[in-house]
Write a structure and sequence with these properties.
alpha+beta; elongated; 10 strands; 41% helix; 5-stranded mixed β-sheet; hpI Integrase, Chain A; DNA polymerase, domain 1
Amino acid sequence: MARSIYSEKLKNRTNRLKLPPKRKPYKVLIAPGIFLAYRRNAGRRVEGDDRRRDAPGTWSVECQWLKRFALADDYEDANGTSVMSYHQAMARALKLARGSDADSDKPVTVAEAIDAYATDLAARGGAKYNATSVRNHMTSAMLSKVVMLLTETELRDWRNGLIAKGLKVSSANRIGKSLKAALALAAKRDRKRITNVGAWKEGLKPLKAKGTNAPPRDNYYLPDATILAIVRECYVEDAEFGAMIETLAGTGVRESQALKLWPDDLQDDDPEAPRLMMWCSAKGRDRDPEQRALPITPKLAQMLRARAIARKSNRLLFDRIWNMSARFRIVLERLGLDLTLTPYTLRHSSIIRQIRRGTHLRIIAFNHDTSVQEIERTYARYLNPVAEDARKGLLADDVPVLDNVVRLAR
């Protein structure tokens, strides 16, 4: 049996009751990095009685976080659960700090929350990189913190620290969004103890880049000829890269959606009207898996059919391409285009192209797995040109004014 750590102050009730009450607990190191903490409570006076009623002390465990777990046996005998002696409290503190296979009382740390989020992403077919990118930007001290003790200030300071290290505001927001998802999942699984949801809702609110009132992506529209030139140059860079960019340009979907495609999702029995059964994204709450038939060009269908044959029916059409934005930037540089553009520009261009052609917004929203409200908010400046027919209902300026109008008698 492991040796108990001796503490003259805390070993029995007689010695503990001699300690003066104070806000900070008395502590004893019981294992490397683990403290047993005892708080001496002052008690209170009862109305109609001048005597002070002393309150029992409380036991807590501290190891980069503090958790109270029982009363001390100052005034009643220990029962091993709600009231504990010094030795019982020491054993319980070690168990809480270290955890065990059969113990679920150990508070979840940030590192464990991120691991659980990564597992959940894999189960849902999401991008595991969303979890690993958060871990890569965290210190060991931050990872060891307990989720239920996180504060709004320290989360905001961590996110702002990413920008101070040189990350763009958009990148810091994206990493913060992934951390929010991990912490929200942990809170959902431990609602009774993790009650500080507001800490990450407020502390990790997205920042807006200076000098931008409207979303900058409103300006991200490329003509068809430019997009075709980009696709051709991406094939020069790499065949896999070119196929992915051509698919994103031809459908306007997100990369995460394209990565879910299987060979059977291509419907090209009619070569003149091929379709692609595209999986919807997992954005939103509690969305069931859903596929939508998207019309594609015969040329894109031929390329995808060739990939389907080459990769067999048991492989996805696409593998994840790492550093995709960096590779896209190389292509932009060779073509002399704006280097701030990203592959997501292809999605914006697809939506704007259909707006300019007068396609109904509901159909555009359906094909691009978004909402009419989001299209109206983001692409408002492109909606006016296609609404010229509305002028036919305006009051005409050249109608002759009648001068023989007589007011009716009352």
